[in-house]
Design goal:
This protein is mainly alpha-helical. Helix content is 60%, strand content 6%.
Length: 170
């Protein structure tokens, strides 16, 4: 469960995200997260979607697409760690991704639908992993990362960004 992911399976930076996840099985956390996140973003007003709380900060559209991009990357990492030995994976530049996302040119509905599609695929991916595979650990961005830690990071990362939107945007 979330708070039972051994700290040796992820870098300390991710502890904040993992602690945001309920102490429930990973697949349940992924499913409940999908409904919470989609519902939260559906509740935003048109003005909220394009708001920046400070110069140079992302809009909620950019935040949602960043969440989607990060989920895809962590799924790719989990898959590579699950299916191979001695996985050593590079990092990614989240700001470069955001700069090239064109999120603000998309509709909120389109972004929410993409999020739901990606999460549905994520749930299927993590359901395919055995308990033994969930403990497989590789190296991502020069830090340890297990398959199960990647899943819990996905869940906590989206909650982290929702918390920021609630605190600074609304």
């Amino acid at each position: 469960m979330a708070n039972q992911v051994p700290e040796s399976q992820y870098h300390a930076y991710f502890k904040t995200y993992i602690k945001l996840v309920e102490d429930i099985p990973l697949n349940k956390a992924l499913m409940s997260g999908m409904f919470k996140v989609a519902g939260f973003y559906e509740s935003l007003s048109e003005e909220n979607w394009s708001h920046r709380y400070a110069d140079g900060k992302w809009t909620p559209k950019e935040i949602l697409l960043h969440t989607i991009d990060t989920e895809r990357i962590f799924c790719s990492r989990a898959l590579q760690i699950a299916r191979s030995e001695n996985s050593i994976l590079s990092g990614f530049d989240e700001n470069l991704f955001a700069d090239n996302s064109f999120a603000n040119e998309r509709s909120p509905e389109d972004l929410i639908n993409e999020y739901i599609s990606v999460r549905t695929a994520t749930v299927s991916l993590f359901k395919s992993f055995s308990e033994k595979i969930l403990d497989n650990t590789g190296i991502a961005n020069e830090k340890p990362l297990s398959v199960q830690a990647a899943g819990y990071i996905i869940c906590g990362h989206e909650q982290h960004h929702i918390n920021i939107i609630k605190e600074r945007y609304l």
